[in-house]
Design brief:
The complex is a heterodimer of chains A (283) and B (286). Chain A is built from 13 helices and no strands. By secondary structure, chain A is mostly helical. Chain A has one domain: ABC transporter involved in vitamin B12 uptake, BtuC (Orthogonal Bundle), CATH 1.10.3470. Chain B has 2 domains: 247 residues, 3-Layer(aba) Sandwich (Rossmann fold), CATH 3.40.50; 38 residues, no CATH class. In chain B, the strands form 2 sheets. Chain B has a 6-stranded mixed sheet, with helices on both faces. In chain B, strands 2-1-4 form a 3-stranded antiparallel sheet, with helices on one face. The longest helix of chain B has 17 residues. Classes of the chains: A mainly alpha (283), B alpha/beta (286).
Chain lengths: 283, 286
Amino acid sequence: MDLLVTPFSSNGFMLQALIAGSLVSIACAIAGTFVILRGLAFIGDALAHGVLPGIAVAILVGFPGIIGAAIGAAFMIGGITLITQRSRLSSDTAIGLLFIGMLSLGVVIVSRSNSFSGDLIRILFGEIFGIGIPSILIQLVATVVIVVIAVICARPFLLLSFDPEQAEVAGFSVRLYHNVMLFMIAITVIVSFQTVGTLLVFGLLIAPAGAGALLARRIEAMMAWALVFGILSVYSGLLISYYFDLAAGASIIMVTVVIFFIVFIVKNIRHHRVAYPRELTHG
Amino acid sequence: MDSQKNAVSLSTVGVQSLTPSTDDVFFVEAKQLNIGYPNEVVVADIRFELRQGKALALIGTNGSGKSTLLKTIVGLLSPLGGKISVFGTHPGNNPRRIAYLGQFHASGFILPLRAVDVVRMGRFPLRGLWGRIGRQDDEIVLSAMRTMGIEKLMDSPLWSLSGGQQQRTYIAQVLAHQADLLILDEPTSGLDAGGRELYLQAINDELRRGASIIVATHDIQEEAALCHQVMLLARKVVAMGAPQDVLTPGALLETFGIVITGDKKRLAVLEDRHGHDLPGLNEPKH
């Protein structure tokens, strides 16, 4: 038992990492659920990478990375909206264009930095052990904002996921609530990048919620599962990193994906078992 | 036809649960209305009026403009020209009073929703962002599910239901709204005989309650015959009026065009139903 608790009780960095990771898990459970239900995985991924040049510039000029990330995200969403509204291109083409454009811009900017590879790895994979109290507080505020948005917008978000036309006819503006949803996803990505990095935040956004979707009958349950899987991943990922001296962010994300596949396999075996007798009665 | 007379007579006396409205106020009124998409007029010069407690059936092939008209009425599409008012104002201004059943549902397979959650969404327009969905709402939801015979499927996940059961769930959602105006796009698609029976009964009850209905349908014999007015659409208004006046073989031929002339068996069925000879066709009945 000590092996599971001591790393956190005796090591301040580990405890802070656990707290920060858990806050990211809460935000990702909520935002990730809607990313999956609304089919926004690509835009979520693009946002996660689109913030890169913003962070890179911020690092170069000595600004907090979070401000750069926010500007990058705003630019990304604005660009996607502009291209889809002003051309006949579908949104995934617009997302793809901006995604790759921002990513390469980010790498080009970082390549001007003296510690090119160090900075890039820090941005892409996070710095979970370098999280300070101020960052945790920012993460806490962001998580509260996300929870508040999800509670206030529960009905329009549900209708939007079910059928956008129904949402519009029911009096909930699709454009407004879609943008609120994107805003919520953007906040999640922006404040999570320090913990797990821009590359890996996407994993925490979709893997726990995806596993939740396989198990849940209700959206609330899906979020609850996503939360449990997210925190479990952070906790066990940190432990693995601690004992085997592995990269923490990547370990966490690896666990989320492993959990997804365990749920997927168990679910399929159970489904097969349930389906088999039914086949017998039919045959 | 009995059910039609029944619906008409009851609807004129039995307006209980709706806001009283004078008979000369139209729920929906269209004048020289052009509908379609930017750069593409689908149907031009539509004129009709719909009063409280009345039903209008839109009949036509795929692409004839039925869904486009319904979407214009609920405010999903802007009119391209002319005038349309719904409850005396712009379409889309009265979400509390309008229930809409679209033809396609984007819900997909992953949405973790139980049947009851879907039906409960029918109460959202009335309760808005904050309003509590209380016991009274739950009773209405349950009653709507009973009406469509799916109360035993309440807790079943939506994805586990058959296509027909899902359609019943969507219809129950519309009924749970208890709206003044029901806009239904091919509501009987995928329904089995039992489901259609329950649906027709429910529509009768809605009319009796004082609601108005506009429905896009292929069902000439039962559903359209139950309506007070029928509009035949073929990217233009072919005919408009009472079912017995409009559902003539000639008008149907113009509406369905090639589809019917190419299908002798269906033609014969239509002849049987309507007791007319279809123009230009002297083939023996099969």
